[in-house]
Structures are given as C-alpha cells and as structure tokens.
Design goal:
Number of helices: 7
Number of domains: 1
Strand content: under 5%
Structural class: mainly alpha
CATH topology: Heme Oxygenase, Chain A
Order of helices and strands: HHHHHHH
CATH superfamily: Heme oxygenase-like
Oligomer: single chain
Number of strands: 0
CATH class: Mainly Alpha
Helix content: 55-70%
Radius of gyration: 16 Å
C-alpha cells in the first residue's frame, strides 16, 4: 500500500487532542519495572483491567486480550475484572477507542524489550504486521470522512475514555504494588 500524503491526518488530530492524557498514562506505567516479576505482574493485571472493558467496546480486528490472559496464566494469575466503560454508541467514539488500542500496540512492542527474558510477553510483543498501522490510519481517515460533523469530537472522547481507563488501572495497581 502506498502512503498517501494525507494518511494519518485524523491520527495526528487525535494525538494532539490526547497528548496530555497519553503523557499521564506513560508516566503512571513508567513506575513499573518490567524486569521485576512483581512489578510486571501488577503491570499486566492493570492492563487486563483496562483492556477487558476497551476491547469489548472497540472490537479491534486483532484483540490482544487472549494474549494478555495467556501471559497472566503463565504467571499463575487470574484474569481480573474489567473496569467499566460508559456506553457510547457513536461511531467516532469506537474509532477513538481503537486509536488508543492500536497506539498501545506500538508502545507495547517497545516495552517488551524491558521485560525479563524468563517472563511471558505475548501481549506486549503483539506487533502490527507489515502495513497494518498505515492501513489502520487510512481506515480511520475514511471513517472520519464518512462520519460527518461531530465525528472527530466523538473520536477524541473515545480516545480520552481509553486513556482514562488505562490511567485508573495503573494508578490502582501502583497503590496496591507500591503502597
């Protein structure tokens, strides 16, 4: 697929609108040492709490929750209850959720390098296949063009809701793990 000059226009708008929330989530999770078994367990449990609510609503093409469940099981941990996500049926909202989830896949691959070699990392290692990130950006742009007025606002709300769930789960896990 050839990259068009406009590919990623909506992704860039979402990135700018959610930059502060994204930074907050990154800062929360930066406190987890992924080479520490106890911190990694807390990290994965937090992600499972957030992802459990998000994937059901966002309906990504390649869900990572099964990979996360497998990693938790390998660490003898149960799948935690998902954090609730307020219902919103707007198409843009669902695309905003997917934007955050697909972006977290990119970040996860970078984080997987920090995980100790003896710990499972199927979830964090689940990278996009060749061309999938660009294809997602094209689909996002197309959905925005078809969505009409208010679509981008709905998408920003969806992305913000995703970041909020990750932040809540991470903050809760920090309080439990680090007192």
């Amino acid at each position: 697929m050839t990259k068009s000059p406009d590919a990623g226009h909506i992704r860039q708008a979402l990135r700018e609108a959610t930059m502060d929330s994204h930074r907050r989530v990154d800062a929360i999770y930066a406190d987890f040492a992924l080479d520490s078994p106890s911190d990694y367990r807390a990290f994965l449990t937090a992600h499972a709490r957030a992802l459990g609510g998000l994937e059901g609503a966002a309906r990504p093409e390649e869900p990572r929750l099964p990979l996360l469940a497998r990693d938790l099981a390998a660490l003898d941990l149960p799948m935690p209850d998902a954090l609730p996500l307020a219902r919103n049926d707007a198409d843009g909202f669902h695309w905003g959720l997917r934007y955050a989830l697909e972006g977290s896949r990119l970040g996860g691959l970078m984080l997987s390098r920090q995980v100790a070699p003896d710990l499972p990392k199927s979830y964090l290692s689940a990278a996009h296949g060749k061309g999938e990130w660009i294809a997602f950006q094209h689909a996002l742009d197309s959905a925005a063009m078809e969505g009409g007025e208010g679509w981008l606002d709905d998408a920003v709300q969806g992305a913000q809701a995703a970041f909020a769930l990750f932040a809540q789960a991470g903050t809760d896990a920090q309080a439990s793990a680090h007192g």
